[in-house]
Predict the 3D structure of the following.
Amino acid sequence: MATTPKKPAQNHVKKVPERHCVGCQGAFPKKSLLRVLRAPDGTISIDYTSKKSGRGAYICKKEACFKKARKSGALKRSLDCEISDEIYDELEHEIKYCEETESEDD
Ligand SMILES: [Zn+2]
């Protein structure tokens, strides 16, 4: 005899913050992107924690996006600063490493 009252469906969809990749221009959750940071003193580094303050540019952990961003200078434009080869090398290394590890569990 007891009828369970129907609860209204609750819309608890968590909004995932998305950022645009400088390579492919697509929007992706921050977590799946690498953040390149320009610190207030002008130093460029890869921000693995995503918590440092400064201006950030995001890129997919994909070699194709990296190549595109490097070739077009999108990273440079996005951060409004010259990017040294060392940073590009570090990025490339990191992206390749990510691609290798991520392709294992498909
Ligand atoms: Zn991309």
